[in-house]
Amino acid sequence: MKEFVEYIAKELVDAPDTVEVNEEHKNDKVVVKLKVGEDEIGKIIGKKGRTASAFRVLFSAVAAKHGKRGILEIIE
């Protein structure tokens, strides 16, 4: 799941080397923390948060396919 988030994030930003992804497992949850460069955060969040919302929906679907609950945190 970490690879999925990393791939999507790197495709969204102009500087893919600024993308950092950490994954934590807690019982039946997977928490993925996404950190990008300060100049790139707007590309991840999108207008009115639509890109971030769609990203979270996709991640939740991937996690559900693996039988887990997925939480995507976007860190500035």
Descriptive labels:
single chain; 76 residues; alpha+beta; GMP Synthetase, Chain A, domain 3; three-stranded mixed sheet; 3 helices; 42% helix; 28% strand
In short:
With 76 residues, the protein is α+β, with helices and mostly antiparallel strands.
Walk me through this protein's architecture.
The protein is α+β, with helices and mostly antiparallel strands and 76 residues long. The chain has one domain: K homology (KH) domain (GMP Synthetase, Chain A, domain 3). β1 and β2 form a beta hairpin. A three-stranded mixed sheet has the order 1-2-3. The mean pLDDT is 94. The two termini are 21 Å apart. It contains three helices and three strands. Helices cover 42% and strands 28% of the residues.
